[in-house]
Design brief:
The protein is mainly alpha-helical. The chain has one domain. It is built from 5 helices and no strands. α2 runs antiparallel to α3 and α4 packs antiparallel against α5. It is globular, with a radius of gyration of 18 Å.
Length: 152
């Protein structure tokens, strides 16, 4: 019984440290969850729109946009609340940079998949590699530039 209690406390301690508000590990963990949520919203919107008769191009762009809006809301409020600019020009700058990095991630994903397939890589593996490259690149850009420590 005592061993189980210690094990539970240790697990809670590790999870608590992982999600600690202002640590890099905590930010990264919450960013990963925000990103996963954005991906789910993207895919759900895409599926619903295609099912509803909307063309795949418009459905894909709409789903991506909705996922990005979700990602902004979660990232700005749960990952970087201490670095979120006040309303006004500073916030608009952050939003513009955030959405610009989303477009950069989309372009990177597209290029990696296309190049991978041209090199004979299975499209699924190319997409997985592209997602990893895009996630890492966009995370770093957002950490270092969009939500840089000094916003003044």
């Amino acid at each position: 019984m005592l061993e189980t209690a210690r094990s539970s406390k240790a697990t809670i301690g590790i999870v608590g440290a992982l999600f600690a508000p202002h640590t890099l590990a905590g930010r990264f963990a919450r960013y990963g969850l925000a990103s996963a949520g954005g991906t789910v919203i993207d895919l759900m919107a895409f599926g619903l729109l295609v099912w509803g008769g909307i063309g795949v191009g418009i459905a894909a762009a709409s789903g991506y946009a909705l996922g990005t809006v979700w990602h902004w809301q979660m990232t700005s409020r749960t990952v970087f609340p201490d670095r979120l600019a006040q309303t006004g020009e500073g916030r608009m700058r952050q939003q513009a940079l955030f959405f610009a990095t989303a477009v950069m991630g989309l372009v990177l994903t597209t290029c990696v998949v296309k190049i991978g397939v041209l090199q004979g890589v299975d499209p699924v593996y190319a997409k997985i590699a592209a997602m990893c490259a895009s996630f890492t690149s966009v995370w770093l850009l957002r950490l270092m530039f969009v939500f840089a420590e000094s916003q003044d």
